[in-house]
Backbone:
């Protein structure tokens, strides 16, 4: 499997070969520049794409032919979260909420409601800082631990599932994950609801991409997602899909 370790070894071997070759033949700077650009591209791809598995395994879907999927929400809780819970209750379907610690502090009641209505809660860092991926492993662990403790103090549940902010991964995050015994969760269908303004375009995108075993990424940060959620639920249910909780879809323990 091509990952961070194998890529690093390959790069060192190629670099050493170039240096040795340059002792006998003047190869110039171009081969070094090409190597640098290729390595940079690989690192970008491995860091920015959740399904690459470049640094560590990120579970992005379930391997199944059964028409089951899981719905996940990121970046809450916000004012939209309670309305989303109303819709989920109306359609009697479960969901996964990857919550931000500092937002949990400001809305403890909604966390209790999420748990009491049978949904799952996960860790999405404390600050969701724009530069979170540049944090040291120690600082990442501090953020994860703080969010974990806040959620546990409210719900009695110690979360085990984690989704990296912005879906970005790196070696420091791998260290934090391993030390804290988290399961990293990605997605297979990204709604792009934070950048697409027209809710019809979001719905059409979801309808076009959904397939058995998918993990759907939505955000409970904007009220427009309510209409998207309703129409998407109508579509998948009418087309024979069953929506299950993420831990059921993946057959993992949702809590420690």
Residues:
């Amino acid at each position: 499997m091509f990952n961070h370790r194998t890529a690093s070894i390959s790069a060192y071997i190629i670099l050493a070969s170039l240096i040795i070759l340059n002792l006998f033949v003047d190869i110039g700077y171009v081969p070094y520049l090409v190597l640098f650009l290729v390595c940079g591209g690989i690192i970008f791809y491995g860091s920015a794409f959740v399904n690459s598995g470049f640094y560590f395994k990120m579970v992005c879907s379930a391997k199944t032919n059964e028409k089951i999927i899981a719905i996940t929400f990121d970046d809450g809780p916000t004012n939209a979260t309670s309305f989303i819970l109303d819709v989920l209750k109306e359609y009697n379907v479960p969901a996964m909420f990857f919550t931000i610690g500092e937002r949990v502090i400001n809305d403890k009641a909604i966390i209790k409601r999420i748990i009491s209505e049978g949904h799952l809660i996960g860790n999405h860092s404390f600050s969701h800082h724009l530069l979170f991926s540049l944090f040291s492993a120690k600082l990442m662990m501090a953020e994860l631990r703080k969010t974990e403790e806040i959620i546990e103090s409210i719900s009695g549940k110690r979360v085990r599932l984690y989704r990296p902010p912005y879906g970005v991964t790196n070696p420091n995050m791998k260290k934090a994950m391993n030390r804290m015994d988290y399961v990293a969760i990605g997605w297979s269908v990204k709604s792009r609801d934070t950048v697409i303004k027209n809710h019809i375009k979001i719905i059409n995108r979801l309808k076009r991409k959904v397939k058995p075993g998918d993990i759907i990424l939505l955000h409970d940060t904007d009220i427009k997602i309510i209409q998207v959620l309703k129409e998407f639920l109508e579509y998948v249910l009418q087309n024979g899909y069953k929506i299950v909780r993420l831990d059921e879809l993946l057959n993992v323990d949702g809590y420690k």
